[in-house]
Design brief:
By secondary structure, the protein is α+β, with helices and mostly antiparallel strands. The chain contains 14 helices and 19 strands. The protein has a six-stranded antiparallel β-barrel. A five-stranded antiparallel sheet has the order 4-3-2-5-6. Strands 13-14-15-16 form a four-stranded antiparallel sheet, with helices on one face. The radius of gyration is 30 Å and the shape is globular.
């Protein structure tokens, strides 16, 4: 079939692995009267996307540059008795909105339209009055960047409406969703996590306000004493009172107090502080931002996902015949129904599978146990499919298609669909062995031909692991994490619960990368691969292995036939390795595993002993750190 004109869509490089004859979908899975989404209609849909100036990157850079300029050009007001410093809640909101917009401009244009005007009002009322000419120009540039960001966000939302209208016109008629897709549940995890983080932020606000209230109560009944500044420390000032007493008082900005200047000291028994520096809730404000920004983003993301999934449940919806294929990362790329050469992908997303013939109890059981959801069986061939719903950037969809065994399968989005950059397409593995499935297509992925010169038929198992440099980096990272955990634990013992406690869970997650760098291991024996990561050892039989590849980001990705993956992240620097002509152990491992999978005669004849499969060091590092920190704190 001749390839139709794609308009302004640059064609992605042709992938010879894709068959020119798409795998057909059973007629019973196609609703009557469902039209094909033609290349002409798909090209028109693609052109309806936002204009180049509306891309989030321009808005993000504009806001980032202007905010940095405004902060550098705007002088800080010094603390004084007439204008005490105190807790700056408006400044906290200003900082939080500016930081949040850097993400919301990219992913949540709806939230951008709500928050950017609020930030603009704060900047106009707080930052502009009483500032110098350079600061005024810088803050005006922030306002211009915010207006530009709002216009770009509105343009993206308008583009989504245009794309939905184009799909509705192309579909002409609407159809009900195939079972069991009507029981979609989206957004539960983001909503739950968002509510927890927002709760943390609310707790931090309450604690900060309570600290201010207690401080103000003591200040109201304190005695006011005049003193002269005689010295300054890093976070303190030394003063001499009129009755010749020398006091050392904490100060957030000691450089604001000139030697010899007069200050007012508030005293209530043993409680003392400068009148110019009331209680500063900075720690609690920082925890508020740390919880409120991601929490609010996750909450809105979950609510939008829930709303968009609910729209799909309200049948009927537009339906179009398209083509789809899965890449090696498990993402599904959608093509026009007549683009049998798969040259111009329209959009991409991540999906999960449901069984069309599953009964109600089974479906509910799968929803209650999300972690046991049956993954979509990977098959990189081009498949015919029926798309239910109106696609747009960030939208939710349903696809009725077939799996590797030619059985009907309904797949649904697990994350919003995204529009790829022009000219991009699926990135299959450079070397991929065929599978042993009985339904494998003879025209599917070819077996790897290259065999490393050092690889010979072996009797004993083969093993790969980190080198000396990787172990050194892993040890250094583990020590840094342990030192950070000790510091936080000590602060909790001496100062009580504070904002630093919220950093501890995030800090401990770095034990995962440290454990991988220290002791990752992959062993190959007669039965398959033993993959040792940070927390557990996983066994992958040879018949379930699909591919092993070294990604452009410097990670090792091992893919199984059911679509699940095992990833060894951040082990290398591909560009530097190519420039220095290096051949690290993880690159050699990928080459040799690919050859072993393609040539069974090269596989080891014996099984690996349990003690040689490797030890996940994540739990070990956690226990050792807990013991060391506990003994140090208690000692």
């Amino acid at each position: 079939m001749p390839h139709a004109d794609n308009g302004d869509r640059p064609a992605a490089p042709h992938n010879p692995r894709v068959s020119e004859s798409p795998f057909p979908i059973p007629s019973g899975s196609v609703p009557a009267g469902t039209p094909i989404w033609s290349s002409d209609d798909a090209a028109q849909w693609t052109r309806a996307r936002g204009a180049p100036w509306a891309r989030p990157l321009w808005s993000i850079w504009a806001l980032l540059i202007t905010v940095v300029w405004a902060n550098a050009a705007t002088p800080d007001r010094p603390c004084s008795d007439a204008a005490p410093c105190g807790a700056d809640w408006l400044g906290m909101a200003e900082t939080g909105l500016a930081v949040g917009l850097l993400y919301w401009l990219a992913r949540l244009p709806e939230l951008t339209l709500l928050t950017a005007p609020v930030l603009a009002v704060i900047v106009a009322r707080v930052e502009l009055p009483g500032r110098g000419p350079m600061a005024a120009v810088a803050n005006i540039s922030v306002l211009v960047a915010l207006v530009f960001g709002c216009v770009a966000a509105f343009a993206r939302i308008a583009a989504r409406h245009r794309q939905r209208d184009l799909v509705k016109r192309a579909a002409e008629v609407r159809h009900s969703l195939p079972d069991p897709s009507a029981r979609l549940r989206r957004g539960t995890i983001p909503i739950t996590a968002g509510l927890l983080l927002v709760g943390v932020a609310a707790f931090a606000v309450a604690q900060g306000l309570d600290g201010i209230r207690v401080d103000q109560h003591r200040a109201d009944r304190a005695e006011r004493t005049t003193a002269k500044v005689v010295g300054r420390g890093e976070e303190s000032v030394r003063v001499r009172t009129d009755d010749t007493r020398r006091l050392t008082l904490s100060a957030s900005y000691p450089e604001d107090y000139r030697i010899g200047s007069t200050v007012t000291v508030l005293e209530d028994g043993r409680w003392r502080r400068l009148a110019a520096e009331p209680y500063d809730a900075f720690d609690w404000q920082l925890l508020t931002l740390a919880g409120g920004l991601p929490g609010g983003s996750m909450l809105l993301t979950g609510l939008l996902a829930r709303r968009r999934a609910a729209v799909l449940r309200r049948a009927p919806v537009p339906a179009l015949r398209v083509l789809e294929r899965i890449d090696d990362d498990g993402r599904i790329w959608i093509y026009a129904g007549d683009d049998t050469a798969a040259r111009a992908p329209i959009f991409v997303g991540r999906f999960t599978a449901d069984r069309p013939n599953a009964n109600e109890d089974d479906a509910e059981h799968r929803h209650d146990e999300a972690d046991e959801e049956e993954p979509l069986v990977i098959d990189t061939r081009l498949h015919e499919a029926v798309m239910f719903g109106s696609p747009y950037e960030g939208g939710e969809l349903i696809l009725a298609t077939t799996d590797r065994d030619a059985q009907p399968v309904v797949i649904r989005t697990t994350s919003p669909v995204r529009l790829p950059r022009p000219g991009t397409g699926p990135t299959p593995a450079t070397q991929e062995a065929g599978t042993t499935s009985a339904a494998a297509d003879p025209q599917g992925p070819p077996a790897a031909e290259g065999v490393p010169t050092r690889l010979r038929p072996a009797e004993h198992p083969l093993r790969w692991g980190p080198g000396a440099m990787a172990r050194t980096c892993g040890l250094a990272l583990a020590l840094c994490v342990g030192a950070g955990a000790a510091f936080i634990a000590q602060s909790l013992v001496t100062e009580g619960f504070g904002w630093r406690a919220a950093l501890l869970p995030g800090l401990l997650t770095w034990f995962g990368p440290a454990a991988k760098q220290l002791n990752w291991r992959v062993s190959a024996d007669s039965s398959g691969l033993w993959l040792t990561g940070a927390w557990r050892v996983r066994h992958v039989p040879w018949e379930r292995l699909r591919a092993a590849r070294y990604t452009a980001e410097g990670s090792v990705l091992i893919t199984m036939s059911d679509g699940s993956t095992w990833q060894l992240s951040g082990v290398g620097l591909p560009k530097a390795e190519r420039r220095l002509n290096l051949y690290p152990s993880y690159v050699r491992m990928v080459d040799e595993i690919t050859a072993l999978h393609a040539h069974p005669e090269l596989r080891p004849a014996r099984s690996v002993f349990p003690r040689d499969r490797g030890l996940p060091l994540g739990p070990v590092l956690l226990v050792l750190t807990a013991l060391a920190v506990g003994s140090w704190v208690l000692g």
